[in-house]
Amino acid sequence: EAIVYPAQKVSLEIDRELVNQMISDVSGSPGDLPLMQYTLTELWNQKKLNRLTISDYTRLGGVKKALEKQANQVFASLSLEEQKIAKRIFLELTRLGEGTEDTRRQVELEDLINSQQSRELVETIIQQLAQAKLIVTGEETRENKRIAVVNIAHEALIRNWDKLGQWLKENRTALLRKQEIEDAAKEWRDNGNSKSKDYLLQGARLGSAEDYQKRYSDTVPLSNLAQEFVKK
Fold it and tell me: Measured between alpha carbons, how far is 20 from 136 in angstroms, rounded to an integer?
């Protein structure tokens, strides 16, 4: 239904072999359906005739490789400074699992801004990644305020993009520590930046956070919010 019905609406022909292969490639993995949608969109954009073929699908690299190819192409098109920012964005948008799979992590746009890189450049990279359909942007209403949020477009990107997988592996220890600090900082913010010491880091936890800032400020820095939180 997901493959054939939309095609019928625009009188697009699809090889039966292609349909069978795509179903086989996502069988047993419901989470890959968004990636299948992305792959079909790429096949549509690259088609030469009014038909989607198994040969085009093979050339694209199939469901598992389509998004990875797109991610690699987009990343390679960036300058070194832009790549550094893009890498940090993808790491920020991934929640590490402890004994479970890594998943998407929705982040407020403001939390992707830090003192190391200009707001303008970070926002430009976010726009480029969103246009490439690697991340999605949106808004949420909280306490009658509109808040910009960012998320990875397809969780399959976390599982299938080797480059992101390598970044996560190389920085896993630091990212787990950062995740704890960022979560505590958000709790502090959600409680109105409470003056109560109940929400502030103290003792060994504070020392650990300060040590993190010294060790990882260049590679996986804390957000402006978390940096302010640690200073408190």
Answer: 30
